[in-house]
Amino acid sequence: MNFLRNTFAVLVGLGITGLIITLGIRAFPQWVTFDAFAPFEHWQRFLESMKNDEAFFGFLLFISGLGTTVGGIATAIIVKYAKVAYAILIGFIMLFIAMLDVIIFPYHPTFYKISIFLTFFPFSWIGGKIVEVIYERNKNKKIRDKVNKEK
User: Fold this and answer.
1) Domain encompassing residue 103
2) What is the average pLDDT value for the chain, to the nearest integer?
3) Helix H or strand E encompassing 81
4) I want to staple 13 with a disulfide (CB 3.0 to 4.6 A). Which of 45, 90, 117, 125 is the partner?
C-alpha cells in the first residue's frame, strides 16, 4: 500500500511542478508563440523563438524552482515516511528532464545549462524540509499539549 501511495505522491508532485511551469510560461503574452495550452507540445519551435531572450531563461529557472518547491511540498505531504527524500526525488526527475531538454534542444544559454544543477535539488529539498518542519512542530505541539494536560 505504501508503494502505491508513494508512487501517487511522486506523480502528483511532478504534475503540480509541470502545471506551475506551464502556467509560468503562459503568464507573459509576448512569450506565447503557440496555440495549445501546454508549451511543451511545440517546445522546439518555442525554444528557437526564445533563444536570444535571456530574461525568459532566467524566469524559466525561477518558475522551475518555484514549481519544484511546490511539487516537493505536495509529494512530502502525501508520503508517510522519508518526506524529504521523496521531495528530492521530484528534483532529481525534473533535473533529468531539464538535462534531456538541454541535450536535445541546442537553444539554451550557458548560464541556464549550469544553473539547472543549482535549481532543482535545492528547491525540492526546501519543499521537503518545509513539510518536515511543519510536521515536527505539530508533533511536538501535540506532545507538549498532552504533557500539559496530564499535569
Assistant:
1) 2-150
2) 88
3) none
4) 90
Residue with cell 501517487: 8
DSSP H helices, 30-109, are 43-50, 54-78, 83-104
31-80 pLDDT, tens digit each:
776 666 666 677 787 788 888 888 888 999 999 999 999 999 999 999 99
Give how many domains the chain has, as a whole number.
1
**What is the distance between the alpha carbons of residues 21 and 66, in angstroms, rounded to a whole number?**
8
Contact between residue 24 and residue 67 where contact means Cβ atoms under 8 Å apart: yes
Q: How far apart are CA 59 and CA 143, in angstroms?
A: 43
Pick the closest to residue 65 from 134, 15, 17 (CA basis): 17
pTM, two decimals, is: 0.86
* C-alpha span between 82 and 51 (Å, rounded): 39
